[in-house]
């Protein structure tokens, strides 16, 4: 006999299934089932703070294979794990609301459009190959908090792969592969958007910036930004840029054939601060550094920079 709480969750799950319509398959219908389809692992870095990031944990799980079903699921109320199946072509930017996990099954792709995490809390995007987006692949903005972008790939898009801006905070971007793309990861909206001060605490770790041109990341205003154990290879313009008094710790990364591993200031933006330690420069220029940066308040596992190319190239991207 089911308990009252199991009956309640089943009714909610069936309601979600009906609302999502064609292209969605309900996986979880009881309290015992959803945990089997939750995000793999847990975030390290800033997304582990402020209560942590669990995405759709505790809610139902649906599998979607059409654009309509995916868009409806991401915009629905309450916690939900959304398993993406096959290739889905989106148009424009599509809202992702609070308490969502968007996780790709083996071979999952999203093309043509992107995800807009706008004024949302507790969101995970994991294990998806993004390509050919018209605006951004993933945009985190308007005070969104506790967001984890993990084990995805990004190629051949129009603008940012993963942009974080407009007072967003407590974000981790990890184990992603960016290739054949120009503008990778912007942090901070513009030089004039001073409201970003005191926010934009983001960790970037174990990402593979594979021949991508710039913004790995380009930072405005954020202080305590942590960039560690990333693999930079053949980046045409630069690796990391710190501007508008941002504070960035660049730690144990591997820069291969990168003329400008770091910039203190960039274009028309005022300079920021960069501390650098433990990095390997392989056929690369000198690191620009200036000022001091707060120590990270969280624990983290730091790989030796000499081992980063093998570790990151073998593990970044949709490999879960």
From TrEMBL:
GO terms for cellular component: extracellular region. Keywords: Carbohydrate metabolism, Lyase, Polysaccharide degradation, Secreted, Signal. It is found in: Secreted. Pfam families: Pectate_lyase_4. Gene3D superfamilies: Single-stranded right-handed beta-helix, Pectin lyase-like. Residues 1-37 form the signal peptide. GO terms for biological process: polysaccharide catabolic process. PROSITE patterns: TAT (PS51318). The keyword Nucleotidyltransferase does not apply. It is an enzyme of class 4 (lyase). One of its GO terms (molecular function) is pectate lyase activity. Its EC number is 4.2.2.2. Its main location: secreted. Residues 60-261 form the Pectate lyase domain. It comes from the Bacteria. Belongs to the polysaccharide lyase 1 family. This is Pectate lyase.
């Amino acid at each position: 006999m089911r308990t009252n709480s199991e009956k309640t969750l089943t009714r909610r799950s069936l309601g979600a299934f009906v609302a999502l319509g064609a292209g969605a398959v309900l996986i979880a219908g009881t309290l015992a089932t959803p945990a089997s389809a939750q995000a793999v692992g847990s975030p390290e870095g800033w997304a582990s703070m402020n209560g942590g990031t669990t995405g759709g944990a505790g809610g139902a799980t649906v599998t979607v294979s059409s654009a309509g079903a995916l868009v409806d699921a991401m915009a629905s109320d309450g916690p939900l794990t959304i398993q993406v199946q096959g290739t889905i072509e989106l148009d424009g930017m599509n809202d992702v609301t609070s308490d969502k996990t968007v996780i790709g099954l083996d071979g999952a792709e999203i093309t043509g459009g992107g995800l807009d995490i706008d004024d949302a809390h507790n969101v995970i995007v994991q294990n998806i190959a993004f390509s050919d987006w018209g605006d951004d692949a993933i945009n985190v903005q308007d005070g969104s908090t506790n967001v984890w972008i993990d084990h995805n790939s990004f190629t051949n898009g129009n603008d940012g792969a993963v942009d974080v801006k407009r007072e967003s905070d407590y974000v981790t971007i990890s184990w992603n592969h960016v290739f054949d793309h120009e503008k990778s990861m912007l942090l901070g909206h513009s030089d004039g958007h001073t409201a970003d001060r005191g926010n934009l605490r983001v960790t970037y770790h174990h990402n593979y910036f594979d021949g991508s041109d710039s913004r790995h990341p380009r930072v405005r205003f954020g202080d305590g930004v942590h960039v560690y154990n990333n693999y930079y290879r053949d980046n045409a313009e630069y690796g990391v840029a710190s501007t508008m008094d941002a504070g960035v710790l660049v730690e144990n990364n591997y820069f291969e054939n990168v003329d400008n591993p770091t910039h203190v200031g960039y274009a028309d933006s005022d300079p920021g601060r960069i501390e650098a330690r433990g990095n390997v420069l392989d056929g690369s220029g000198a690191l620009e550094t200036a000022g001091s940066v707060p120590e990270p308040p969280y624990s983290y596992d730091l790989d030796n920079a000499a081992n980063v190319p093998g570790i990151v190239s073998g593990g970044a991207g949709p490999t879960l």
